[in-house]
Amino acid sequence: MFNKLKQFKDIRGQAKEMQNKLAEESVTCESNGVSLTMDGNLKLTKVNVNVDLLNPDKKAKLEKAFQDTYEDVSKKIQRIMAMKMKEMGGLPNIPGLN
Fold first, then answer.
1. CA dist., res. 15 & res. 92, Å (int)
2. Domain assignments of the chain as residue spans, ordered by start
3. Minimal CA–CA distance to 18: which of 80, 95, 98?
4. Fewer Cβ neighbours under 10 Å: the N or C end of the chain?
5. Please, what is the angle between helix 2-23 and helix 59-87, to 10°?
6. pLDDT in tens, the chain (98 residues)
7. In whole angstroms, what is the distance from residue 55 CA to residue 91 CA?
8. Which residues have CB under 8 Å from 23's CB, separation 6+?
């Protein structure tokens, strides 16, 4: 039983280390007047919108630009996350899940 608890503690430590490393990563993408920055924990850390898009007549354009930019930044940070996880040894062997 103590061995299982030690394994759990080790896995938890590895996960925390990975989360900290991923938080150091950051990607910024811009599309049609919208700029988004996302960190490796998938948290949006910065949003910038061109003032011209704040006109109510351009609501649909702003929504589309935000959607496109979010897709771009998400894909790029996910690639970085996958590479970082691979560098750190991949996912740990979690008892009961392998």
1. 8
2. 2-87
3. 80
4. N
5. 130
6. 677 777 778 888 877 888 888 888 899 999 999 999 999 888 999 999 999 989 999 999 999 999 999 999 999 999 988 888 777 776 555 455 44
7. 46
8. 39, 40, 41
Is residue 59 helix, strand or coil? helix
In the chain, the largest separation of any two C-alpha atoms, in whole Å, equals: 64
Looking at domain 2-87, its CATH architecture is 2-Layer Sandwich (3.30)
**Lookup: tokens for 48:** 């910038």
Q: How many angstroms separate the CA atoms of 84 and 55, rounded?
A: 40
Residue 20: how many CB atoms within 10 A of its CB? 11
Specify whether the CB–CB gap between 69 and 31 falls below 8 A.
yes
Structure-token pair, residue 37: 């920055």
Which residues have C-beta within 8 Å of that of residue 25, sequence separation ≥ 6? 39, 40, 77, 80, 81, 84
pTM of this prediction exceeds 0.70: yes
